[in-house]
Amino acid sequence: MNRISPRTGGASTTVARRYQPRHDRRLVVIAHAGAVLALGLLALGVPFAVIVFVGEAVPSGGLTWDFSMGLGFGALAMITLQFALTGRLRWITHPFGADIVYLTHRYLSWGALALMGAHFAVLYVFHQPALGELNPLQARWELTAGRVSLLCFAGLVVTSQWRKLLGLSYEWWRKLHLALAITGFVAAIAHVLGVGNLTDTAEKRALWLGATLGWVGLLVFTRLIRPWMQSRNPWRVVANHDEGGGVRRLELAPEGRALTRWKPGQFAWLKIDRSPYGMIEHPFTISTAPEKGPNLSFAIKALGDHSTELAQTEIGARAYVDGPYGAFSVDRMAGAQGFVMIAGGVGITPILSNLHALDARNDPRPIILIYGNPTWDNMAFRDELDVLRKRLNLTLVHVLDDPPDDWEGEQGQIDFDILTRHLAADTRDWPHLLCGPAPMIASLRGDLNRLGVRDRHIDYEIFELV
Predict the structure, then answer these.
(1) CA-closest candidate to residue 79, choices 206, 208, 231
(2) Are 375 and 402 in contact (CB under 8 A)?
(3) Domains recognised in the chain with CATH numbers
(4) Calpha distance 292→295 (Å, rounded)
(5) What is the pTM for the complete model shown?
(6) 196-226, pLDDT tens digit by residue?
(7) 3-class DSSP string for 234-296
(8) Rounded to whole angstroms, how far apart are CA atoms 168 and 179?
(9) Rounded Cα–Cα distance for residues 326 and 335 (Å)
(10) Residue pLDDT, tens place only, 119-148
């Protein structure tokens, strides 16, 4: 996206008049979130309901046996749910934000692995004969399938939790993640049907057939249908600007149907010069305000192999966009009296997107932006923020780790003392939007709480995928 044009500038003013922001109503979001959670609980509970209430009564194998079976079926139900959480289904991510959904996926993965391990452990301690031979070369195939599934999901959790420590690039980790997930799920279903415990009726076998078909459907949608839809709506890179601080801004123009219904602060998954069916893609904030479409801009800092490649993209490259996602938006805060925004480094990009939207709407509400960077010369979007400061009711506070000799502003890390100096008492109930490195966010949340800001007034993005 080019520098901000004057409010009287032709085309952008026309777009701004046509565009009407769609603010999320709080009660609607809460109802939507409640419905998604209820469906999730229903998905976890259905297997048990079918096993217990459908068909003939289930004979008890004793407390420890029944407990172990329950652990196993609970693990499988939770594993099946994981594919929905990672499928980028907007009706699931919308009320929570994609980062919260992915974090839930991570915690549930640990829970599913714990249930699987406990299922095996209880049988090993109390019903060891039922496990047969542990040697996979001698064991029955259905028992080996269960152990393969356990190892696959253990591998998923370990490689996800300690990816960087293991030296796995993000691109290779995604491929490994998909391979382990597919192998583990297929092995788990084979284990359940092969062992035959609690699958003695047509209704119960239909349950697991339905779970398998649902899983296959999600896989087909995410890996085939969605990429096919993207292939019919390609984008073209039309600009690559240096924004300072090691950040490049790519501008994309639609060659098919333009992106619609995105909110400021949201992000999209981006593929450039690659097949839409490929797995190498990354999420980047849409820097453009919705009022300034249809072109999209993405600010990219070279932090990894793929982001370094993207930052060097040539004009004319073909791109594919999957979005929008995320809930880090002023459009969720329509009734706010003002905004406090705090950013560190490249974390300014979703903040900047929200500022551009407020500017395009001539929003008069006060905004306090505290922006931390290592140095003055290594700051991204410095000139653009200065322009926005003059156009908005924006108080801009720069905080530098290593300021120049003649610096008279704030220096060091953004901390409680700096917040106290710049956030008046009447800002405590304003939304506080935070974006930056995870340690910075954790520290700022504590400092804001000390200052008297409640958690419900603090919004932040918490995942780090690059």
Answers:
(1) 208
(2) yes
(3) 26-229 (1.20.120), 233-325 (2.40.30.10), 330-460 (3.40.50.80)
(4) 7
(5) 0.78
(6) 776 667 777 777 778 788 888 888 998 899 9
(7) CEEEEEEEEEECCEEEEEEEECCCCCCCCCCCCEEEEEECCCCCCCCCEEEEECCCHHHCCCE
(8) 15
(9) 20
(10) 999 999 999 888 888 888 888 898 999 999
